[in-house]
Amino acid sequence: MTTVIVVFMAFAVLICLFSVLVLTRELIEDITEKRKQKAEAASTTEQPSEQPNLATPEPVVMAIPQEEPQEEPQEEAQELSAEEIAAAGEVRFASKTTPTLEEKYLALDAKSRAYYDEIVKYAAAQEDSKRFKNTRYEEYKTGKTRLVRLLVKRGVVVCEFILPNADFKNYVNENKVNVKVAGTTMKILDDTTLQAAKDSIDIVVKALEEEREYKRQLVLERRRQRRRAQKEEKEQSKKGEN
């Protein structure tokens, strides 16, 4: 037992000695580093005192001009850019002013104006035709149905139609579906396209008459069905009394 204690104490003494050696080594290293830092600091402080003799004779300051006339060109450049911006703004403003339908019509050649006038006369001659005109187009309607819309695009007379399909329109009316039908565009370039525009107006008028007749027949059919239902109710009530 005593031997174990002796061995343990000896081991502890060795550990203490090792730790003391490590600490002394670290202290020595710290002292040497501090001495090196002091020596480096002293050397850096001595260098500026030796170098001013070399820096003073150099005429570097004389080579730098103090008065530089660079600000004036910048102001001129800014003024020019402002003028350019103003000019650009004037051009943009001019581009926004679009000509009206009347101005476009007057700019047409005689043949195109004759086509335009012929279509207007033909559309205005239809039954219950009404004219609607603004700065962009001229339109003729019968009720809510458009017969034709006239425009002038790039020096050409253009007609827009909504050519209805009777069966499809009847289906929409019966089922109460909200549908927007796309229009048909036609450029009036010659007598053939002029006649095609008139024929298109006739198609719209015919479809409108067919729609009116269809609605009239539909109202009559509903009346007949109502009368039949009333007649059947009366007959059933008489049978119940008997």
Explain what the structure shows.
The protein is α+β, with helices and mostly antiparallel strands. The chain has a domain at 102-236. It is built from seven helices and five strands; from the N terminus they run αααααββββαβα. The chain has helices spanning 2-50, 52-55, 71-96, 101-106, 110-124, 166-175, 191-241, and strands spanning 129-133, 138-142, 145-153, 156-161, 184-188. The protein has a five-stranded antiparallel sheet. Helix 5 (110-124) packs parallel to helix 7 (191-241). It is elongated and about 135 Å long. It starts with a helix and ends with a helix.
Overview features:
242 residues, alpha+beta, 5-stranded antiparallel sheet, 7 helices
Report the sheet with the most strands, covering strand number, pairing sense and barrel closure.
5 strands, antiparallel
Which consecutive residue ranges, at least 5 long each, have pLDDT under 50? 48-57, 59-95
Give me the secondary-structure category.
alpha+beta
Q: What distance separates the N and C termini?
A: 134 Å
Helix proportion of residues, in percent?
A: 55-70%
Mean pLDDT, as a whole number?
77
String of helices and strands: HHHHHEEEEHEH
Q: Helix count, per DSSP?
A: 7
Strand proportion, as a percent range, falls in 5-15%
Q: Major sheet: order of its strands?
A: 1-2-3-4-5
What is the number of E strands?
5
- The global form is elongated
Tell me the Rg in angstroms. Answer: 52 Å
